[in-house]
């Protein structure tokens, strides 16, 4: 099933807010609709929002109508700003939009038709690049999974969150396909339930055994079920290996460390931000309080009560066993192995 696809000058997005009960698509004919879909989590997941934003930038070129008051370049700059402003934490958004802007600036033949064609090609190239490297990354990760393993993952890091295969969930999918006997524990992941609604849906669809748990059962499963490894995704990994991921990841990392359980981060190089040295510099998205006060649109607490709703937290690099990217398994000292993975051939920033 396609999560994001382009057809006839429109971008189609699988509406993830309707899953698992409805499989419906949002058809975006304007870049502003793509921005709204990213902010409202109709499309979500660091790599997926980068891919969607790339198409959104290309869509802006199709939206543009010659206007002496607003040249195309300024219109595209406006689209880039609006798309970038949707969600501040996942660096993939900035990574994809920078590549789209570079694609535009490198166009020699500046007819509107050619610009539209080149930008659409650039967005498709980003989509295909991410999809290809996710499968490679999954194989690196699957090599770390024992023949029999209890795995704890978090949030949703599958096809829905990426360009098609997944990051941490892609490793689980690859290990299952290799015949390994794995049991996956899936925390619901409050407040918007990416685990219960999306990861459970993906694993069920793939025929991969899993057990749904509530977020307050993490300690229990370490103690009573025994966890062999933890696999999580990331929204931004910085130069020293600190990383931002769905709220609750930090607590999971502390528990894994306490139980001497390997803790792996799985993410493509488009999630790595070498411009930041430490995790405390990562901007953390604070979302609508109604996401916490309500469940399925029903108030579950006191009306208009005070709420804290950070969408992400930061895990320090010393709790990370390794970072798995398309370049391989990056082991501590992470600052050194992350930089080396960029210095080697071809990892594009
Ligand atoms: C494969 S990265 C997915 C990453 O994105 C999720 O956040 P959100 O659902 O808010 O976009 C979560 O942090 C996942 O680890």
From TrEMBL:
Q: GO molecular-function annotation terms?
A: S-methyl-5-thioribose-1-phosphate isomerase activity
Pathway listed? Amino-acid biosynthesis; L-methionine biosynthesis via salvage pathway; L-methionine from S-methyl-5-thio-alpha-D-ribose 1-phosphate: step 1/6
Gene3D superfamilies given in the database record: translation initiation factor eif-2b, domain 1, Translation initiation factor eif-2b, domain 2
Q: Which of UniProt's keywords are assigned here? A: Amino-acid biosynthesis, Isomerase, Methionine biosynthesis
- Where are the residues marked Transition state stabilizer as a site? 155
**Which amino acids does the record list as binding substrate?**
44-46, 87, 194, 245-246
Q: Which GO terms describe its biological process?
A: L-methionine salvage from methylthioadenosine
Q: Which EC class is this protein assigned?
A: isomerase
**InterPro entries of this UniProt entry?**
IF-2B-related (IPR000649), IF-M1Pi (IPR005251), IF_2B-like_C (IPR042529), Initiation_fac_2B_a/b/d (IPR011559), M1Pi_N (IPR027363), NagB/RpiA_transferase-like (IPR037171)
In the UniProt entry, which residues are flagged as the active site? 235 (proton donor)
Record's PANTHER family?
METHYLTHIORIBOSE-1-PHOSPHATE ISOMERASE
**Family stated for the protein in its record:** Belongs to the EIF-2B alpha/beta/delta subunits family. MtnA subfamily.
Cited NCBIfam families: eIF-2B_rel, PRK05720.1, salvage_mtnA
Q: Which HAMAP family does the annotation name?
A: Salvage_MtnA
Q: What name does UniProt use for this protein?
A: Methylthioribose-1-phosphate isomerase
Species name for this entry?
A: Syntrophaceticus schinkii
């Amino acid at each position: 099933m396609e999560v994001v696809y382009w057809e006839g000058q429109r971008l189609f997005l699988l509406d993830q807010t309707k899953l698992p009960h409805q499989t419906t698509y949002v058809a975006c004919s304007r870049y502003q609709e793509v921005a709204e879909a990213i902010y409202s989590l109709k499309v979500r997941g660091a790599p997926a929002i980068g891919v969607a934003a790339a198409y959104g930038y290309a869509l802006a070129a199709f939206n543009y109508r010659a206007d002496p008051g607003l040249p195309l370049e300024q219109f595209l700059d406006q689209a880039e700003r609006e798309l970038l402003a949707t969600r501040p934490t996942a660096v993939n958004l900035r990574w994809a939009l920078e590549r789209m802007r570079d694609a535009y600036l490198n166009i020699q033949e500046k007819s509107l038709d050619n610009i539209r064609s080149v930008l659409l090609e650039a967005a498709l190239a980003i989509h295909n690049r991410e999809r290809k490297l996710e499968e490679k990354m999954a194989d690196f990760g699957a090599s770390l999974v024992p023949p029999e393993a209890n795995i704890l993952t978090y949030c949703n890091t599958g096809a829905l969150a990426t360009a098609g295969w997944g990051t941490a969930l892609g490793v689980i999918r690859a290990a299952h396909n290799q015949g390994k006997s794995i049991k996956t524990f899936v925390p619901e992941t409050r407040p918007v339930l990416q685990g219960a609604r999306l990861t459970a849906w993906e694993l069920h669809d793939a025929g991969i055994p899993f057990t749904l748990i509530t977020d307050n059962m993490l300690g229990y499963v370490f103690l009573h079920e025994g966890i062999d490894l933890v696999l999580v995704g990331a929204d931004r990994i910085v130069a020293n290996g600190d990383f931002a991921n769905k709220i609750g990841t930090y607590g999971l990392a502390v528990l894994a460390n306490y139980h001497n359980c390997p803790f792996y981060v799985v993410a493509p190089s488009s999630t790595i931000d070498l411009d930041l040295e430490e995790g405390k510099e990562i901007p953390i998205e604070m979302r609508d309080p109604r996401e916490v006060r309500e469940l399925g649109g029903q108030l579950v607490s006191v009306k208009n009560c005070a709420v804290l709703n950070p969408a992400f937290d930061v895990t320090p690099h010393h709790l990370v066993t390794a970072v798995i990217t398309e370049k391989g398994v990056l082991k501590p000292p992470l600052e050194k192995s992350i930089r080396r993975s960029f210095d080697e051939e071809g990892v594009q920033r």
